[in-house]
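To close the chapter, one final illustration. This time we ask the reader to focus less on the individual chains and more on the assembly as a whole: which components sit near each other, and how the overall shape emerges from the parts.
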Amino acid sequence: MELNSLSEGKWWGDDCLRHVDGFWLLPQFVEPIDRVVKHFRPLPSDIILASFPKTGTTWLKSLLFAIVHRTSKHRLAMKNPHELVPNLEVQVYTASDEPLTTNPCSRHRIFSTHIPYQLLAKTLDSSDCRIVYVTRNPKDTLVSTWYFVNKWKKAEKEPWPLEVAAEKFCDGLVPCGPYYDHVMGYKKLSSEKPKKLFFITYEELMSDPISHVKNLAEFLGCPFEGEHEVEEVVKCCSFRVLSEHEVNKSEESPVWFQLPYNSFFRKGAVGDHKNHLSDEIIERIDALTIEKFHSVGFMYGI
Ligand code: PAP
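The assembled structure is written out below.
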């Protein structure tokens, strides 16, 4: 894919995203995403965690790791979840067509991706791999994105105002946006192929983690043997426990990203948008949610 031939859209100051098949991508990820699309061949035993950024990826990474590698879940205290479950376009296919080797002994390889289904459909449909998709209320997603982006180096000189972030979010002009198209791509697949894709929301998981984590483990073919086991997994992946580990409080940045490990843990709450967004922004996003989700029968996000 020729980077310079793609149309550009300004999202933050003079910084532009590139338009690829209906989605806005950060320029540095256009080529890695192209490599994933062209070269990644999932094994039937692979588990792919897909998500729009800031919707619960870190949480689901830890849960998937703890469910699949149950006897090794103590490793979550020593390594950040993003090191245990690598992202395809950010960590695996960064600079070469050959993926980094992941643990060849594990029964299931687990990868994550923010690539929209519309771009990755052929790859994902070519294998019996299982997909887990997590989504989150659009208003909380926006607030979490806004906080995260304002930690980037550029924000020291040029903060990203919340009003601009909201405007761009509604226009779909945020990394991996439009949010609504990203969610609906995977949502549609989950309705058509419920055995292939497990669709979960951040809010469902927060309100009843035990039931949903049990269902998730069954979907993955790794059911729990007793109540105690599932309770332990839920606990070790909770925001409270995970965010207390030194490795997740670390100010050190990984080689693959510009922000420190602690930037993946902020508040971990449902409804934080109420503390940040004006009534006007809330009304605008709710109207969009009704148009994009409710009108097609997905009663979510308000
Ligand atoms: P990513 O797309 O960059 O990987 P992602 O993990 O999806 O980010 O989103 C980060 C959000 O998940 C943060 O939300 P907040 O800004 O509203 O606080 C982060 O705090 C939250 N988060 C991280 N780990 C957990 C967890 N174990 N439980 C609940 N929320 C979590």
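The chain is about 45% helix and 10% strand. Strands lie at 8-12, 15-20, 23-25, 47-51, 110-113, 130-135, 197-201. With these observations in hand, you are ready for the problems at the end of the chapter.
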